[in-house]
Amino acid sequence: MNLEKIHSVYFVGIGGIGMSAIARYFKAMGKNVFGYDRVHTALTANLESEGMQIVYTDNPEELAPDFLNQPIDNTLVVYTPAIPVTHAGLGYLRQHGYRVVKRSEVLSEIIEKQKTIAIAGTHGKTTTSAMVAHILNHSGIKCNAFLGGIALNFNSNVILNPDAEYAVVEADEYDRSFLKLNPFLAIITSVDADHLDIYDNADAMHNAFQEFANKVSDQGAVFIHSGISLSAKAKKITYSLDDKKADLYASSLHIENGTYVFDVIFQSKNLGTVRSTYPGHHNIENAITAIGIALELGIEWGKIVDSIATFAGVKRRFEYHIKRNDRVFIDDYAHHPTEISACVGSVKELYPDSRITGVFQPHLYSRTRDFGDGFARSLEALNEVVLMEIYPAREEPIPGIDSEWLLNKVRTVNKKLVQRENLVDEILRLDPEVLLTMGAGDIDKMIEPLKSALNEKDE
């Protein structure tokens, strides 16, 4: 695939966070960029303002008008595996001779000539990737980065440097996409069962991660969370939040005036003290392995410390929208039981005496079915549970699986199923001390209405 000869690119599913990063790359390279997405979002609005033509129907007769005038030989169509096989627009493009490739194939081609730093795992990929990219950028090391979220230090999900030696990428396990990569350095944060609509079982998923680990260059290294039973052909470095058997971990972790303070221990040596304002033990663990990557690249300790201290976070990852003594509102992308437990645990650590009200929008019928008991147990750590209807994304409904089914599994007295149109009124009635919204669907569209209503109530 010779990308230099490509003049125009059409993205089927351009509003996805990973797809939009690549769309921005091609736009920066001077290509004509077009796309389709199912819904209009703040992200697609930003892409349109950057000069990309986007349509919101899969009707082949309503493809981006200027796109149909582009020569087929110099045009590339990129799609995400989340697009259903029945998608009419994608079918039309295939039938008419367009070159159609998956996002993972294009990403692999884009970063082919750079040393790839790939962050894989069922949890923590986006934050860890953003941390690594920030450390490199802050330390003066030129890199490209393709992220699964909007990094607040860059206000973007893509970083582009024409002379970049490294590429930081979020290695997505969905549809085994990460197996297209050939990493120089890699991180594996977790291998909890997920995407069982793709992987038949947890063993199949574990095997895919083992294959990914084996692809890391023998000139590089792979950082694997302690307790994960994966081998590696490259140098293997284990890491943890506080497991002293790991090669790399945090020690003397405590909070000072809202800042996490900890020492970094690497191969039994105390490297020094680090401070992070980014909340949550899980994010300190993410910082530990990002620091490991920096050490492997030979970055000076002082620059590493300063980079962690100045890391601003990622949009929708423990993101504060209200932070006052009498009211707190946090939004998070958590959509798996392990992520919910980590998120709620962090909130309880920061606000131990407050009543915590959680609003959760389940994502996918299959994930809700597969992890129903796990979701219930993780939600029970909240003082009050509010469930929204399941966000279907790419799926059709599964008989018997809905939010009421999940709510019945939650052994909490203060629980309720609320329709979207009634959510703001219900939250105002509950009058939460700490409000936590969670989910990977479109719950983020409720952030501004909730924030405005709570602020108005508090005036």
From TrEMBL:
Q: Which residues bind ATP?
A: G121, T122, H123, G124, K125, T126, T127
From the Swiss-Prot or TrEMBL record, state where the protein is found. Answer: Cytoplasm
Q: In which pathway does it act?
A: Cell wall biogenesis; peptidoglycan biosynthesis
The transmembrane segments are 6-26
Main localization (coarse): cytoplasm
Q: Which GO terms describe its molecular function?
A: ATP binding; UDP-N-acetylmuramate-L-alanine ligase activity
**The protein's enzyme class:** ligase
Q: Where is the Mur ligase central domain?
A: 119-294
Keyword Membrane attributed:
yes
What EC designation does it have? 6.3.2.8
Domain Mur ligase N-terminal catalytic intervals: 9-113
Q: Which reaction does it catalyse?
A: UDP-N-acetyl-alpha-D-muramate + L-alanine + ATP = UDP-N-acetyl-alpha-D-muramoyl-L-alanine + ADP + phosphate + H(+)
Instruction: Output the Gene Ontology cellular-component terms.
Output: cytoplasm
Instruction: Using the record for this protein, list the coiled-coil segments as residue ranges, or answer none.
Output: none
User: One GO biological process from the UniProt record?
Assistant: cell wall organization
Q: Which UniProt keywords apply?
A: ATP-binding, Cell cycle, Cell division, Cell shape, Cell wall biogenesis/degradation, Cytoplasm, Ligase, Membrane, Nucleotide-binding, Peptidoglycan synthesis, Transmembrane, Transmembrane helix
Q: Does the keyword RNA-binding apply?
A: no
What is any Pfam family matched here? Mur_ligase_M
**Residue ranges constituting the Mur ligase C-terminal domain according to the UniProt record:** 316-441
HAMAP family hit by this protein: MurC
What does it do? Cell wall formation.
What does the similarity note say? Answer: Belongs to the MurCDEF family.
Name of protein: UDP-N-acetylmuramate--L-alanine ligase
